[in-house]
Amino acid sequence: MEDARECLRDGVLNHLNVLEIEALELSRQQQLCLQQQSRVDDLRIMVDKLRAQKDQLKARAKTTMSLQQLKAVVHQRNEEFNDDISEEGCSMTAKSQLSFLMARKTQVKDLLQAHHLIGGYDVTETCRGKGVCISIATAFEGFYLETYNLELDVSRAIQICRHNIPPFIPLEKLAQVNLQTDLMGFLSTLSHHLNGFAGRRQQIRLIQEVLRDSVEVMESNVLFNTIVLMCADPEENGRAVLCTLEYSDLSRYLPTKVTIESEDKALPSTPQWKESQSLLLQTPAHTALKALKMKGQIA
Amino acid sequence: MAENQTPTLQTMERVYEAEIKLLQEEIAMLQNQQENNEREVISHFGEHTQRALTSQPDFQRGTKDTAMNLKMELEKLEEDLARQTKMNGIVLNECEVNTLEKSKTKIVQQHRVSGNCIFLDFQVEFQLTEILEEEATIVRSITDLNIVVDGCEFIDISAFVSGVEETKSLLLFFRALRAFSERCEHRNRTFAHFKEKYPELVRLPEGCRGEVMVIQNPKIPGCTLSFVWNITVTKDGVIIPKIDLLTKLPEQAALALDQRMVAENGPQSFQSLLRILGVEATIEALIAAVCVE
């Protein structure tokens, strides 16, 4: 009664408000609890699955033989075979066959992995043989970079259905050349383009990382086929040198044209810089510039 | 009520998470053991494994299902391998993997792979380093690379190969190897084709896999045409084929033909013929010319 009166004094609406807040809080807590419960359930399922997997592995280890055991079996078989030729010496015990099958499985898996590591196109079939998904790996000097994927519809004429190749790679143009007639040729050209692009970009990344203090990237474009670099001069009052690298062959990571410019008009034609120009044509930019820095030609 | 349950749920969550981690580690270890054992088996009993794929021993109940499943799985994998081999143009025969270092953030593995690309045999050894960086990205790189290539064409790519070893450009090596082998095969096929078609006229002093083909009409002694077909690889893996024509004429003929500047202009005209007709038709045309004479 007292409460009610109190409430009436404070106003019913106010009271309702308090109740609503409490209700909301309660439902939030319940929600949280439910979420936690479902997470615990998920975890329990996961634990059960992993336990089963572990038991399976242990069972598998029991059904197969170790190398030593297999050696013994094969040796014994061979001896029996020699003793009694009429017996079917070639047949194997079930256990040893299982071991060999599993061993071959591991070997094939390793070979597939090796194909992947050496940059082979990873091919997987989709939609019951109607389509294939092909991955093209890119790398530059030991570093694995992006992998690009193409999904091809091969049911009639070969068509590219989906891909994640950057829009500035001339995919359409390349496809027109030989996608229908020479799929391998097409993939090879595309792979060269993608690797050329990845290689050019990686060189710029390395310059920005390793030669931060001596070389500044003034200009570059999405394809990384026109690059302007500013190299600091080692002398204090020296003038900066601008190197422009142009890559007219998009499938390559080495430039086709190198221009050296400086406020000091005579500098580009000095033997030292002439030599550097040809070095830049034959060596990746970060390596060439590192060599120039070592020689003290740039700061 | 909710407040009472929360702590127990939280402890359960932690207990389960810990168990999952433990189980995952244990499974990884078991798998590793098993696979290493299987790799040993393969390296000792390569041929027996092949027999196991075809033989049908009497299985007891239970193992029969396992074996059937395993066989099906294996068939699928073998299909994948065959397709991968065809697509890559590279046959891998053997591979060996050894883990040199393993921690939570770094794995170093030594791989040895051998195989062939058309008729060039190779053996490649490399160290693969995987480093787990922040934001769960894995940086993979080749940290050591050794390449051995067998075959008489090797001399043309030896400089390229040592450059690739130095820069650890494993993928570049295989891209170039494939393109180079294809070009060499094309040269071999072309030479073999003409040798077969004109056995009296065509000589291959270095064999089918050599770079020289000599044409000589027995009726015109002293007059030879030599095609020198070079295939080289630049540092960055670009394949450059180059065909040159070397002419040798006896003095008399040289004098007679000199008015038409044949000997001097020959090589140049040959290059334009190559551009217009392509290799096969150019050689065919020159053989026809020699026969008519």
UniProtKB/TrEMBL annotation, chain A:
Keywords: Centromere, Chromosome, Coiled coil, Nucleus. The keyword Endoplasmic reticulum does not apply. Pfam families: CENP-O (PF09496). Residues 40-67 form a coiled coil. This is Centromere protein O. It comes from the Eukaryota. It is found in: Chromosome, Centromere; Nucleus. GO terms for cellular component: Mis6-Sim4 complex; nucleus. Its main location: nucleus. Belongs to the CENP-O/MCM21 family. InterPro entries: CENP-O. It comes from Synaphobranchus kaupii.
Automatic annotation (TrEMBL), chain B:
GO terms for cellular component: chromosome, centromeric region; nucleus. Residues 13-87 form a coiled coil. Pfam families: CENP-P (PF13096). Keywords: Coiled coil. GO terms for biological process: CENP-A containing chromatin assembly. This is Centromere protein P. It comes from Synaphobranchus kaupii.
